[in-house]
Batch of 3 targets.
Target 1
Amino acid sequence: MNQSIKKAFLDTEDGQIFYRIGGEGEPLVLLHMVPRSSDEFKELMAILASKYRVIAMDLMGLGDSDKPPREYSVADYAKTVILLLDELGIEQSNILGSLTGGYIAGEVAVSYSDRVNKLVLCNVHGFDAKEAKIITQRYSQGFTIKEDGSHLMERWLARVNYVGQGELNHRCVLDDLKAFGRSIYAGVAVGKYCIYAPEKFKLIQCPTLVCNGTKALEPLDKYGLVKIENQAWLSEAIPHSKTVKIEGGTLWMFNQMEEDISKFIIDFLDNNQRKK
């Protein structure tokens, strides 16, 4: 049964943060990858809102959130999560992060450990120093508007082999367009942060689920952004974590396989020992 998901804004000193919220029960914050928005969790929220109070925010500079007045760090993004929890009167929450959002979720679990109950990290791939530098440069440049409009077709074709020609690709392109013409701070922040994350994440103590799609590396590998040997980092950094693989899952698996993924999430949140 679909639950009603409402939309709202949080006012901060650096601008407004857009978020979606619905359901009742134990809180679950969802943090999207770059350059997407909370729309990444549209299908998943409709399922999980029947059991949890689900909250998905647009990272500042993406989606319908304002661009921050300065280059944000991962620590800055983590602080915005806490600001939203405070606004909603939530003392402790579960947090799920997808790729970029996973790095931010991990930072929240480290820096605000008393505010996090359980952690779910999805497709949070590892990057070495060279790859991190490429990521930082690409997101620093951002997307460029071209006079002949060819940038529109470029974005349409960018992931068509993975999401198809239909509505999902259209939704992804809309998210792309909202990030055009400026540096994509969340991507830059993670590009600078990811090489330190293996040591930082060793401080994570809460129950953690690592959830990876078996096809999620493909588009990143295509552009030389990942190496297979760097992908065991989460299990090494968080030895108490539980790992599951989503067979056939891509970077866009929350939109494509929401029923399968929701089962793993619900099982982890409901049946594993909670943080004391």
Note: Strands lie at 5-12, 15-22, 26-31, 52-57, 93-98, 116-122, 208-213, 242-246.
Target 2
Amino acid sequence: MKIAIETDSVSVLYRQTQHSRANLPVQTSALSDVSLSVALGEVVALLGPNGAGKSTLLQTISGALKPNSGEIKLFGEPLSRLSRRDIARQIAVVSQAHSVTFGFSVRDVVMMGRSPHQGGWMVATDRDRQAVDDAMRRCDLLALADRLTNELSGGEQKRVTIARALAQEPHLLLLDEPTAFLDVRHAVELHELVLSEVRRGEMACVIAMHDLNMAAQHATRIALMKKGRIVASGSPENVMTAERLRDVFEVEMAVGEVGKTRVFVPTAK
């Protein structure tokens, strides 16, 4: 399998407010010695409690944050050597805060995903229009194509940001809590859409999420995170055990099966 993204011993430090006694800036580790490789055809779910480093890892992989140490390679090329435009042609990001550009139609916003592939005049080609139509169809947005984004619900706006990312035709898709604001049907459809796109073998996906049940059903691999470190990585069956989940989330977890589907339910002490 061709490796899409690889992090080698990546660490990220955040500078905090000054120490109350020494009056010196304090640094805290957001990521510590994180090594992860994701191949085309894989959906890797980042699981862990709030503050585990999931969003920070996605931001670092995307190039938005520079690591303090370690190296990131995109298809074998050091990320630090690539321009933002080169990165945008390969990586699409849907952040936790689902910002959309108000005052524009749904079609206009999704077309913005084509900008890395367009020239300086941003003139849309037939290829651009086809990619936009395909992305809106896959995200169930064709009926809303001419609506202004500020007229949409939170869930509809979220689908617009996902369609914009798909219109980019990335080889690596980074999703941070993508099902926030989505109803159950669209949440399930989103995960199935991502999995079907990845199965074509031309895309990899790294997705930060809290829904253990969705992760077990749709991810090909799990990276379990705690305090800025990856503490376990592997198949859902091997990684998502009651013991490991208890250690990471610090809550008892019942693990069972409904039919052939594994389910995870936190239990009271």
Note: The mean pLDDT is 90.
Target 3
Amino acid sequence: MRIIDLHCYPNTEPWIACQGPYVEALAQYWKRPWSAKSEAEVIEDFSQAGVQAVLVALDLETTTGTPPCSNAYVAGMWKRHPERIIQAWAAVDPFKGEAAIEEANTAIRELGMLGFHFHPIMGHFAVNDPQFYPLWETIDGLGVPVMIDVGTTGMGAGMPGGLGAKLRHAHPLAVDDLAADFPNLKIVAAHPGWPWSDEMTAVALHKGNVYWELSGWAPKYFPEALKKDIASRLQDKIMFGSDYPSIPHERLLREWDQLGYPQALMEKIFHGNAERILGL
């Protein structure tokens, strides 16, 4: 079966370096070193897992003071390895204003990237903040999708003050506002959205332009209500992602299998919905 992984980070030195103070917190959260691999090792990880990856760029410069893992870098990695990396999400820092808008145009029109990923908790913003609407208008005009993290994160978890990050920035109702204000914008919520999984279910069901990928979470720990909804009213909305390198692909794929869903449903989750919704 084809497996499209919508949420893979480069896991190379530029990506590790761009996270600045979050690196130590992530190592503590995942209870293992949070360190870089070579590009060849990353591609081998994808090959061993049998996934076709969509890479994710990361720009947190306003909050971390570190250079981004840039769109040009991530697009280059994609284009060097098209057999395993099939597309890439761009990233822009909303606080950069006109520079973010210019970078958004470049990412799509020149680099040919899929759309944009946003990490509200790490970036210290909510996607429904009116000051960022000129950026959303630009992205909407480009006709590309966005992927937005919802729910808590390992970034800053357990550290004093969570390193200044605020969980409310990743509440699903911020996505609900954005979906209502930009009805033509395809929005993919990333992660199960705990502790607001029920709220995220409501948003995905109510807004026709909102979809959901469940990366960064061991499937056996999905809330029971979510497990049931995946097999019924959410089956045409759910897509697969790993949040690589957070959780090994082997564990994720094994636990998805242990949920016992029929083959036809897994075809939708692993590739069919991403093909239909995102054109992959």
Note: The beta strands are 4-8, 52-56, 85-90, 115-118, 146-149, 187-190, 210-213, 238-239.
